[in-house]
Amino acid sequence: MPPRTRRKTNDLAAAASQLQRTRYVLRLYVAGMTPRSADAIRRVTGLCEKHLSERYELEIVDIYQKPALIKGEQIVAVPTLIRRLPLPLRRFIGSMQSEEKLLFGLDLVPAGKPGKPRTAGAR
Fold first, then answer.
1. With the C-alpha atoms ordered 71, 75, 78, 84, is the resulting torsion angle positive or negative?
2. CA 60/CA 8 separation, integer angstroms
3. Which helix (H) or strand (E) element contains residue 46?
4. Could you read off the pLDDT of 5-34 as tens digits, one per residue?
5. Residues with Cβ < 8 Å from 84, sequence gap 6 or more?
6. Taking the mean position of all CA atoms in its chain, how far away is CA 7?
């Protein structure tokens, strides 16, 4: 393999390794402990454990308990999942039913699969 190609391959491997170590900071906004809120919590927690195991922080915010936070974050509907880190900030609003759409909408990279997330419906 020519030196230039080897260097590019090594750079790509290093970038993929860095993605696998990236720490994700997420905040999920819910409204009370309704069935929809409980479902969103369960699904997001499951997604994090499956794809970001030991690489994430997930804060769950009940807007009834901390109403001041919704203004600062400009929350217009719940549930809302916000990826605060890594930048850029990403939001996913509404149903948390589809794992594929969550991965795609938040640009999450499944653990062990560097590169682009699997594609799903529109953002």
1. negative
2. 40
3. helix 35-51
4. 667 677 666 655 555 678 999 999 999 999
5. 25, 26, 27
6. 31
Taking the C-alpha atoms of residue 114 and residue 18, their distance in angstroms, rounded to an integer, is 9
pTM strictly above 0.85: no
Tokens 């953002």, residue located: 123
Residue 112 Ramachandran class (φ > 0 left, ψ -120 to 50 alpha, else beta): left
The token duo for 59 is 């804060």
- Tell which residue, 88, 102, 82, 86, has the closest CA to residue 21: 86
CA–CA separation, 61 and 44 (whole Å): 13
Residue tagged 């499951």 (tokens): 46
